[in-house]
Design goal:
There is one protein chain. The protein is mainly beta and 122 residues long. Helices cover 0% and strands 49% of the residues. A hairpin with a 6-residue loop joins strand 4 and strand 5 (46-51). The model has no long low-confidence stretch (mean pLDDT 95).
Length: 122
């Protein structure tokens, strides 16, 4: 019922920027909390950041603080992840996910996108 499609990944050099997008469809976007996760080969999936319909932001992962910024445009049913000063360590598949906005911060996400690859070369 809910479909999430990530886009914007690619191959960049260290220090470059990318903006990822996640398009939401199927239900009322503004009533969902949207999160970004990433997973590198051989590593567990890592929480990056999340945002509520109101714009309240969950704390960024320590590894991306000061470099990544989450935002959402409820009119366009889209959430963004602006990634600046990219490092090779940021290389991963990035996923967006959704859960009901009233869900607790620790509750699991119900819907997931297919992911978009971000590769950062040195």
């Amino acid at each position: 019922q809910v479909q999430l499609i990530e886009s914007g990944g690619g191959l960049v050099q260290a220090g470059d920027s990318l903006r990822l997008s996640c398009a939401f469809s199927g239900r009322t976007f503004s009533r969902y909390k949207m999160g970004w996760f990433r997973q590198a080969p051989g590593k567990e999936r890592e929480f990056v950041v999340a945002i509520r319909w109101s714009g309240v932001i969950t704390n960024y992962a320590d590894s991306v603080k000061g470099r990544f910024t989450i935002s959402r445009d409820n009119a366009r049913n889209t959430v963004y992840l602006q990634m600046n000063s990219l490092k090779p360590e940021d290389t991963a598949v990035y996923y967006c996910a959704a859960k009901a906005d009233y869900s607790s911060d620790t509750a699991p996400y119900d819907y997931w996108g297919q992911g978009t690859q971000v590769t950062v070369s040195s």
